[in-house]
Design goal:
The chain has 183 residues and is α+β, with helices and mostly antiparallel strands. The chain has two helices and eleven strands. A hairpin with a 2-residue loop joins strand 7 and strand 8 (106-114).
């Protein structure tokens, strides 16, 4: 039974918003490192998008997912996208967070979506510059977070929840589309 520190980053300022990105840590995270990740990603976000980092957030019990407390850190300044031009509000970029974990014979992989994305391409796929921005920001973040940054696998009726340290990151070489029950 391990307590995980949950970090939720709220994105706002776009049609279809707000959005939430959720990250988990085994030790109290430093919001400055999470903020630095998203600050590195801001060239890929439209200038209308603001990311907000609450300085008080929840902790969960890893095997059940139940809330078991809160944690606080020094407040981190908002991040505002610096991308320009028109954009599709429901389309953006994806990040795959790899682990060496297996659950029920499947690899544990986490995902973070950057929607909307300030795509500048005319080919329908992200440019090498856009992908390099994501790769660089993720690499810097993984160095800062070390093995404290984890992917949490939710519990099911037949097994307890588990968590797995992130070992790498890759930018998806195509745009993602945000779909939800709100569509």
């Amino acid at each position: 039974m391990t307590t995980l520190y949950r970090v939720r980053v709220r994105s706002q300022g776009f049609s279809g918003g707000p959005g939430i990105s959720t990250l988990y840590f085994v030790n109290a995270p430093h919001l400055s490192a999470v903020r630095a990740l998203f600050d590195g990603l801001k060239p890929n976000l439209p200038g209308t998008v603001t990311l907000v980092f609450a300085n008080q957030q929840d902790t969960i019990e890893s095997t059940t997912g139940e809330l078991n407390g809160t944690w606080t850190d020094t407040a981190a300044a908002n991040v505002v996208g610096t991308g320009t031009g028109t954009y599709a509000a429901a389309a953006g970029y994806g990040i795959n967070w790899s682990t060496s974990g297996l659950v029920n014979g499947r690899h544990i992989v986490g995902h973070t979506y950057l929607v909307p994305g300030a795509g500048t391409t005319t080919t329908g796929i992200p440019t090498t510059t856009e992908l390099a921005t994501i790769t660089t920001a993720c690499g810097t973040f993984l160095t800062a977070a070390g093995s404290d940054f984890v992917i949490w696998s939710r519990p099911t009726a037949s097994r307890a929840g588990s968590f797995h340290p992130v070992t790498g990151a890759s930018a998806l070489p195509y745009y993602t589309v945000l779909r939800s029950r709100r569509d």
